[in-house]
Design brief:
Elements: H1 26-40, E1 49-53, H2 60-69, E2 75-78, H3 86-100, E3 106-111, H4 122-128, E4 132-135, H5 141-154, H6 161-170, H7 175-192, H8 198-218
Parallel strand pairs: 1-3, 1-4, 2-3
Helix pairs in contact: 5-6, 5-7, 7-8
Pfam families: Bac_DnaA, Hda_lid
Domain Chromosomal replication initiator protein DnaA ATPAse: 74-133
GO molecular function, one term: DNA replication origin binding
Length: 219
């Protein structure tokens, strides 16, 4: 098997459009890219209000981070609106109303449910339904494997198809959990000065299961 000894390359790069694996979400990615380009060039976007929702691991936080990292002028980004207190909801509602009269500004809001299912202030839910709504689709097996291997490369790891297949079959399939495992594998391989192999992966996962069981027993 093609394996590589991991080196300390530091933390992976921050989220951006280029390292987002879109899968079935290509239209959403292209739309957000165009929005950023329009605002940076001082143009008035055809659509200025967006609500993007999806389940855990569908890429919401990555896209929110990419928008924030773009340092785009006149762009407001809100992540996890479903967790907002009533006070923050009212503030966002008034901010939304203020942006209506500012054609050179845009607002992108992320949440975990479609607008009609959000347990937020009715007036805010109404505003979130105004603009363009995207439903992010979780990655299928092929796209998830691509995303996993890309994330491994960003850490200086050569994961290989057999390891990625094993991970997807035996662990949680959301990218947040998979990236946590990659971070742990990176540290373990470096500490042991061993290449990243399937036995090392199994050893790591077993140690994590044992740690979890011991934690439950102590609790």
């Amino acid at each position: 098997m093609d394996a590589q000894l991991t080196l300390d390359f530091g933390p992976p790069p921050p989220p951006c459009f280029d390292n987002f694996v879109p899968g079935a979400n290509l239209e959403c990615l292209a739309t957000l890219r165009h929005l950023v380009q329009s605002l940076k060039h001082g143009e008035t976007p055809a659509q200025r209000f967006f609500y993007i929702w999806g389940p855990e691991g569908s890429g919401k936080s990555h896209l929110a981070g990419a928008l924030t990292a773009s340092q785009c002028p006149n762009l407001m980004v809100v992540d996890d609106v479903d967790r907002y207190s009533k006070g923050r909801q009212r503030t966002l509602f008034h901010r939304f109303n203020a942006l209506i009269d500012q054609p050179d500004h845009a607002l992108v809001v992320f949440g975990n449910q479609p607008p009609a299912r959000l347990k937020l202030l009715p007036e805010l839910v109404s505003r979130l339904s105004w603009g363009m709504v995207f439903s992010l689709q979780p990655l299928d097996d092929n796209a998830l494997a691509d995303a996993l291997e890309q994330s491994a490369r960003e850490r200086g790891l050569n994961l290989g198809q057999d390891l990625s297949t094993y991970l997807l079959r035996h662990t949680r399939r959301d990218m947040a959990s998979l990236k946590t495992i990659l971070d742990g594998l990176d540290r373990l391989a470096w500490a042991r000065k061993k290449p990243l192999t399937l036995p090392l992966l199994k050893d790591y996962l077993q140690s994590q299961r044992q740690a979890g069981e011991e934690g439950k027993a102590e609790g």
